[in-house]
Amino acid sequence: MQRIRRALAELRSGEPLFLSDERDPSLILAVETLNANRLEMLKAFTEKPLRLLVTAHRARSLGYATEGDGPVALSLADTPNIEALAGLCCAGTAKNQIAPIAHLHLMDTAAIALARRARLLPCLISASIAPQYTAIVAQQVIDGELLSVPRPLLQQINAQTTEKPERISEARVPLSESEEARFVLYREPDGLGEHVAVIVGNPNEWPDAPAVRLHSACLTGDLFGSLRCDCGEQLRRGVAGIAAAGGGVLLYLDQEGRGIGLANKLRAYALQDSGYDTIDADAELGFGDDERQYEGTAAILQDLGIKQLTLFTNNPAKINALEAAGISVKGREAVLGELNHHNARYLNAKSDRAGHLLDEILIEDQPSR
Description:
The protein has 369 residues and is α/β, with parallel strands linked by helices. The chain folds into 2 domains: 1-158, Alpha-Beta Complex (DHBP synthase); 166-255 and 292-364, Rossmann fold (3-Layer(aba) Sandwich). 35% of the residues lie in helices and 20% in strands. Strands 7-8-9-11-10-12-13 form a 7-stranded mixed β-sheet, sandwiched between helices. A 6-stranded mixed β-sheet has the order 4-3-5-2-1-6, with helices on both faces. Strand 8 and strand 9 form a beta hairpin. The model has no long low-confidence stretch (mean pLDDT 91).
C-alpha cells in the first residue's frame, strides 16, 4: 500500500512512473499534469509510437466501437503536442477515429485504475522502454529519481483491501438542525480521502435501526447553495430527519461528483452547459455513471457499532452496496430537495438513467426537462 500511495502522489504531481514488467516495461504520465519537458523525456526512452490510454467510455465518445469496459490504447503515430493530447482526453475532439487502436499491455488496466483513484482524468500517455535504455531507467530508480511500480503490486489496485478507514479525531459540534451532534473524522488508508461521521443524538438512545444517510460531499451545493443540484437541501434535511427519527449518523463522504473529484465535476458542469446530461458528461470525460465505492463506508458504520439501519436515500444502489457489505437495511426514507429550472434536467437524468427514486418532486407541473 505504501508504494501505491507514493505512486498516486507522483502521478498527481506530474511525475512519471516506471511500470516494471519483464514483458512490457514502460513509463506513464498523466495527461492532465503533462508538460513539454516530461513529454520529451518519454519520447527519449522509446523507439515505438507513444500510446494513449483511455477508458472505454472515452473511447466510445471518440467514435471507437469498443466491447466491454476495459481501457483502450491508441497509437500516436505522429509526435503529439500537449494541446492535442488534452483534446483526446477531454471534451471537444471531433467524434471520429483519430488514431489506430494499439496493443493493450498487461498493466494498462491497472494504470487507468490508478489515475481514477488519483482523481485525475483517466487518460495516460505510455512509452515502451527500448532495451538499450533499460539500464538508464534502472539507475534512475536506484537514485530515487523515478518510482518503480512492479506489475504484481499495481494489479492489486482494484483488489479488495483489508485496510479500513482510520478514526483520527472527533469533537462536539452543535448544529442548527441538531444541537446534540458530534463529528468523527476518518482517513482512508491511501491518505487521500477523509470522511466525517456526523453523530446525531445520543447513541445510547438511538432506535434499534438508527437513521443513516450517506451524503457525498458537494462543495458547490453544500457550501455555496448551488442551484444546479439539490445537495445542500438534502444535507440539511438529512440531518434534521435523522434527529427527528431519534438520532443516527450522517456520513459526509469525500466522493465529490459521484467519485470523480471536484476538478472533473467542474469539467462535467461545463459539458452540461453545452447540452450533455450528467451521465453523458461524465462518460465524455472517461468515467462511468457512478464511480463511488462503499466498502470503506460500511467499515465506518461497523466501527460505530451500526449493523442495521434505516437508510435516508433516494438511491437504491446505496441500499444494495450496504447490504452486500453486510449491513442490514431495515427501511428507506426519501430525502428530497427542491426542483428548479437549473436542476430539473439533472434530477430527471438521475431518475430516468440512474434509477433514483424522485417521482415525488418530478411532477408534471414543474419546470420541463
